[in-house]
Amino acid sequence: MRGEFLMPKNVKIISLIFCLSLLFFAGIASANDIFKKYADKDEETLMKDLAALSKKQLIEEMDSLAKSSEGTGDINALIPFATELFERKDEISDEELLTYIKNPSLSPATRDFFVELYVAKHEDGNNLDEIKALLADPEVDKSTKTSIVTTAHFSPDDVGILIKLAKSDNGLLAFHSIKVLNSLDKNAANQLAEEILSNLNQSSKIELEAALKSKAIFLKTAKEKDQNYENLEKQFIQLNLDILKNSNDPELKDTAVFALSDLGSKNALKTILKSEFIDRELKVFAVDQNFMTLKRILENHPTREELNLVIQAMDILPITDLAEPLKHIAGKVKELDFKKKIEETIANIEKNGIKGNEKWLDHAQ
Fold it and tell me: Does residue 147 lie in a domain region?
């Protein structure tokens, strides 16, 4: 949600003109005089017209557009109005912004914009206490609270309110609260994840998605600290396998695969590659994400079982970063059939391989 309205000005104007024309064809514009008012304007005229509006008129027209666009999932038509308001941000006090954010008569998209504008005015991350206080206000709806959670800057001092938000909801507010918690207090996020995962049948899909992601993050950082890590990892892998086998929800099943891949462990990757419940394209993703895990296996005196894992992974997605380590190992293998298998894998990598994705360089455990 962060930054949806804040983009280069020329892009915003083009977006409005383009979106208005599309909306006319969709029949939406006929129900809104604001669409009709601006649909045939060129960019220069549109800019002048928006600049000539009062602050009150800008907000009213933007909100009218937002209400007509509800259900389309497209906020692009609002962006020029939001841009003009952003240019005038110093004319709008924090008190006014908070009033707009709390106003239930404004559309959710309009309130979201004012959340973004408030945070942008405090881009140093300071003096956000007043907008964060809305998170504890029962009269502020969950949609607006979700916008605040995804947009504002949080610190360890905010852990308590984020836990309350996560426990009070089973939708996007919970999902994003847990997501922010992961960056502030992994133990607290893990405790929430444990509560959700221990009640699979009572938890919503969104809660489960957040919990699986959170648990994977926690386990990845706990490997060197928790003596019980092997059991925890085994239980988590089995939990995700159970979801893959028993769930009828494709999105939840995909989340289970991503959680296993996020774990970044040899056992998790082995589980993904062996599973008959996981599509090939998701296995390709897992190999891509975990190529550094495979490389570290090769660099640390791999067993035959581990080498077979690497060979299986390279059959799915050959990665050039693994060719040299495999050549080094092949030179030491005495069993001719297995040596040939490794050499065939190297040949496949050299012919069809791609460079490892740099964004995953720090992913391995």
Answer: no
Each residue's pLDDT tens digit, 39-65: 677 777 877 888 899 999 999 988 988
Share in percent of the chain as helix, strand, coil (round to 5): 75, 0, 25
What is the Cα–Cα distance from 65 to 81, expressed in whole angstroms?
10
Residues, the chain: 365
The rounded distance, in Å, linking the Cα atoms of 3 and 144 is 15
119 neighbors 152 (Cβ within 8 angstroms): yes
In degrees, to the nearest 5, what angle opens at C-alpha 151 toward C-alphas 149 and 154?
60
Is 266 among the domain residues? no
- Pull the structure tokens for residue 59: 């907000």
User: Of 125, 119, 149, 123, nearest to 136 (Cα)?
Assistant: 149
* CA geometry: angle 263, 264, 268, nearest 5 deg: 70
Asked if residue 123 belongs to a domain, the reply is no
- Structural domain of 31: 11-90
Reply yes or no on whether the pLDDT at 22 is more than 90: no
Map residue 285 onto helix, strand or coil.
helix
Domain count, the chain: 1
In a domain, 197, yes or no: no
Q: Which amino acid is at 260?
A: L
Residue 338, classified by CB atoms within 10 Å of its CB into exposed (0-12), middle (13-18) or buried (19+), is middle
Q: Looking at residue 153, what DSSP letter applies?
A: -
**Which long-range contacts link 34-37 to residues 24+ away (Cβ below 8 Å)?**
34/61, 34/64, 34/65, 34/68, 35/65, 35/68, 35/77
Question: What number of other Cβ atoms are within 10 A of residue 44's Cβ?
Answer: 9
Cβ atoms 149, 177 nearer than 8 A: yes
DSSP class of 28: -
pLDDT computed for residue 177 by the predictor: 97
Q: Whole-prediction pTM value?
A: 0.82
Cα within 13 Å of Cα(96), Cβ side: 11
CA nearest neighbour of 269 among 281, 248, 283: 283
Which tens digits make up the pLDDT trace of 264-279?
A: 999 999 999 999 999 9
